[in-house]
Amino acid sequence: MGTIAVLGAGKIGEALLSGLLKSGRAPEGLLFTERHPERSAELEATYGITGVTVEDAAKRADLLVVAVKPQDIESLLDRLSPVLRPETLVVSLCAGLPTALFERRLPSGTPVVRVMPNTPMLVGEAMSAVSPGRHAGPEHVRTVTELLSCVGKVVEVPETQQDAVTALSGSGPAYFFYLVEAMIDAGILLGLPRAVAEQLIVQSAVGAAKMLDESESHPVLLREAVTSPAGTTINAIRELEKHGVRAALLAAIEAARDRSVELGRAHED
Questions:
Q1: Is 69 annotated to bind ligand?
Q2: Residue 156 region, left (φ>0) first, then alpha (ψ -120 to 50), else beta?
Q3: Is 67 a known ligand-binding residue?
Q4: What is the predicted pLDDT for the residue at 220?
Q5: pLDDT tens digits, residue range 176-223?
């Protein structure tokens, strides 16, 4: 992969740098950009990685990971375009932004791979979906897959499915956090101390996720295994269905998909 530069060392950018170091990558082969000097100094002290300007990163890196907020992309591309070498692989972690935007603004022929990761990257359990742009070939996809495998699992999808991926797994952790928050509140309502309710629910979530990951059974079968006739669980499921929880979740994910589409359209010429 040569030298890798992460443009935008926020939480996701830092998590990727940390994962690369844990996978055996030498600090000398990594660079990052950060607008705030105090934050840059903190990252240099923590990881031993050099903070540089966007222009310097473009000149020195063989692979650029763009991890800035979508609203900051225009100014970043303005700085990158005059100095980027055409053979440099550009990896976008920017939600909603199509590869066509980068291809239009960067030197002709620049290979771009779009990625939708999620925040479990912070604990090495990300789910990332990758999509190659027009100038990115299988070798570029393999490089990006190798890059992201150090912080979780990776799947390749057509770029037309990236907005759906953003809504499902990109935003997905927030849905689980929301559900856990509500269940902890329910425990408090039933008379449990907050600390006890939190421990019960968080460990239940961890265990359920592990069962889903390791079992070959469909989620419906795993749920049915907990649902005894005339028991407590089926009564709870009846209330969830009565209040339209399934329909609300479907609508919520569709709304997230629609917003991802809007973010991409905002940068169309």
A1: yes
A2: beta
A3: yes
A4: 95
A5: 999 999 999 999 999 999 999 999 999 999 999 999 999 999 999 999
- Residue pair 173/159 in contact (Cβ under 8 Å)? The answer is no
Cβ-based neighbours of 236, under 8 Å, separated by 6 or more: none
Among 152, 146, 142, 92, smallest CA distance to 121 is for 152
Last residue of a domain, one of 129, 157, 185: 157
* pLDDT tens-digit map of 95-151: 889 999 999 999 999 999 999 999 999 899 999 999 999 999 999 999 999 999 999
How many CB atoms are closer than 10 A to CB 155?
12
83 is in an annotated binding site: no
pLDDT level of residue 86 (50, 70, 90 thresholds): confident
57 is in an annotated binding site: no
What is the CATH number for 12?
3.40.50.720
Whether residue 103 lies inside any domain: the answer is yes
Q: How far apart are CA 15 and CA 250, in angstroms?
A: 30
Closest to 143 (Cα-Cα) out of 132, 127, 159: 132
Q: Name the residue range of residue 234's domain.
A: 172-262
Residue 73 has which token pair? 């992309």
The pLDDT score that the predictor gives to residue 76 is 94
269: pLDDT confidence band, cut at 50, 70 and 90? low
Pairing of strands 4-7, 30-33: parallel
Handedness of CA 73, 158, 148, 207 (dihedral sign): positive
Residue 6, classed as helix, strand or coil, is: strand
Region of 180 please: left (phi>0), alpha (psi -120 to 50) or beta. Answer: alpha
Same domain, 246 and 176: yes
- Same domain, yes or no, for 250 and 211? yes
* pLDDT number for residue 71: 87
Q: What domain count does the chain have? A: 2
